[in-house]
Design brief:
Blueprint (H helix, E strand, L loop, with lengths): L1 E7 L4 H10 L6 E7 L6 E5 L2 E5 L2 E10 L4 H12 L8 E6 L17
Antiparallel strand pairs: 1-5, 1-6, 2-5, 3-4
Helix pairs in contact: 1-2
């Protein structure tokens, strides 16, 4: 199993969610996060004063998939979230040793 953590722009959430559900992803966790990468934030004007926004608001999507579905999910996220501009986000993939469904005690791929 793989855990796929995706950091994307806010307005791309519906596109990514649709792309994942169309490909059979059955569950995901969405979190509003703030951070920066190479873009290092940006500046904004408020009431005539310019100020720095160090941490840019983003959306983090977490999902667990079977190893065989990992590349398909990554490709779907890239197609749905990509704008070609700096700040499109990142995808992090890590191995999951096991998953357990609390309600039934079922474990492994069946618990996803």
């Amino acid at each position: 199993m793989k855990k796929i953590e995706t950091i994307i722009r806010h307005y791309k959430l519906d596109d990514v969610k649709t792309a994942l559900t169309e490909r059979g992803v059955q569950g995901m966790t969405i979190t509003e996060v703030r951070g920066f990468g190479r873009q290092k934030g940006h500046t904004e004007m408020y009431r005539g004063t310019e100020y720095a926004v160090d941490f840019v608001p983003k959306i983090k999507i977490e999902t667990i998939v079977k190893d065989s579905d990992c590349q398909m999910v990554v490709d779907a996220v890239i197609r749905a979230a990509q704008t070609g501009q700096v700040g499109d986000g990142k995808i992090f993939i890590s191995d999951i040793a096991d998953t357990v469904r609390i309600r039934t005690g079922e474990s492994g791929d069946g618990a996803i």
